[in-house]
Design a protein that fits this description.
Layout lengths: L6 E2 L1 H5 L8 E3 L2 E7 L3 H12 L4 H4 L2 E5 L2 E6 L1 E2 L4 E4 H16 L3 E2 L6 E8 L2 H12 L2 E2 L7 E3 L8 E2 L1 E2 L10 E7 L5 H10 L3 E4 L6 E5 L5 E5 L5
Parallel strand pairs: 9-13, 14-17
Antiparallel strand pairs: 1-7, 2-3, 3-5, 3-8, 4-5, 6-7, 9-14, 10-11, 11-12, 15-16, 16-17
C-alpha cells in the first residue's frame, strides 16, 4: 500500500495540521463551506473538480446556493474509512476555499445512521435491502446496508440479546455530530424534554429518549 492510501484513524486525521475546516463523522471527513450565491458554489465545485485524480476518489458533494458540503471517505471491499489520501484532498479543498474567500462552518456538519435491531439480524436484512434498494457495504456486508449513490442514510443492523416484549424488534437513530458539538447537542435534547438512557461509553455516544420512549444516539468518533 502506498503512502497516499495508508489507513488512518479519525484521531490521526484531527491531529494533522491544516484540517481545521473538517470533522470526521460516521461517513468520513466532512466540511461545509459557506457561500453567498449559487454561482459561488458552482465556481468552488468546478475548482474542486480540477484536483488531479478527484474522479477516482468520488467525493460526495452537496451543492446549495448558501454552501457546499463535501464528504471524503474510502469505500472498498477491504476498508471503509479514512486514508492519507483523504488528508491530501481535504487540504487541497480547504486551500481552494481559502483562495475564494470561503469560510468553513465545522459546527454545521452531521451524518445520520438508522439502526434496526433483532436477535437474528440476518433474518431482517433482506427485507430492508428490498425496501430501500440498498446494497451491502463492501467491507461489512453482514452488518451494514448502504446507498451506493451516498444520498440516503446508511443502515447498521444491531444484534439484540432478546426481542422486545411481544417479539418485536427495535429501531433507533444515531446522529453523528462533530466531537466538539456533542455535549451541547445532548444538553439541547435534554432541555427539549428528553432523558438520558445510557452514557457509559461517552463521548463515543450517548443514548437519549423522547417522552414516548423513542431512542436516539448522539455519536462521535471520539473514544472508539
Amino acid at each position: 500500500m502506498t503512502e497516499s492510501t495508508r489507513r488512518i484513524t479519525p484521531d490521526d486525521f484531527h491531529a494533522t495540521d491544516g484540517l481545521s475546516d473538517w470533522r470526521v463523522l460516521s461517513e468520513g471527513a466532512c466540511a461545509l463551506f459557506r457561500t453567498e450565491t449559487l454561482a459561488d458554489s458552482v465556481r468552488f465545485v468546478e475548482d474542486i473538480s480540477a484536483i488531479p485524480g478527484i474522479d477516482s476518489d468520488r467525493p460526495a458533494i452537496d451543492l446549495r446556493s448558501d454552501g457546499v458540503t463535501v464528504r471524503l471517505v474510502t469505500m472498498t471491499r477491504e476498508h471503509y474509512g479514512l486514508t492519507t489520501r483523504e488528508v491530501e484532498l481535504a487540504r487541497a479543498i480547504s486551500t481552494i476555499a481559502q483562495s475564494q474567500g470561503l469560510v468553513a462552518d465545522p459546527s454545521a456538519v452531521q451524518t445520520f445512521l438508522v439502526v434496526p435491531g433483532a436477535p437474528d439480524t440476518a433474518e431482517i436484512m433482506p427485507f430492508w435491502r428490498a425496501v430501500l434498494g440498498y446494497d451491502p457495504r463492501p467491507d461489512s456486508p453482514e452488518e451494514d446496508l448502504v446507498d451506493l449513490q451516498r444520498i440516503g442514510p446508511p443502515f447498521w443492523f444491531e444484534p439484540m440479546q432478546e426481542s422486545r416484549p411481544g417479539g418485536e424488534g427495535a429501531i433507533h437513530v444515531a446522529v453523528w455530530v462533530p466531537y466538539d458539538q456533542a455535549e451541547a447537542r445532548v444538553a439541547e435534547a435534554l432541555a427539549a424534554g428528553g432523558r438520558l438512557v445510557y452514557d457509559k461509553h461517552a463521548p463515543a455516544w450517548w443514548t437519549l429518549a423522547d417522552p414516548a420512549g423513542n431512542e436516539a444516539d448522539i455519536a462521535t468518533t471520539k473514544g472508539r
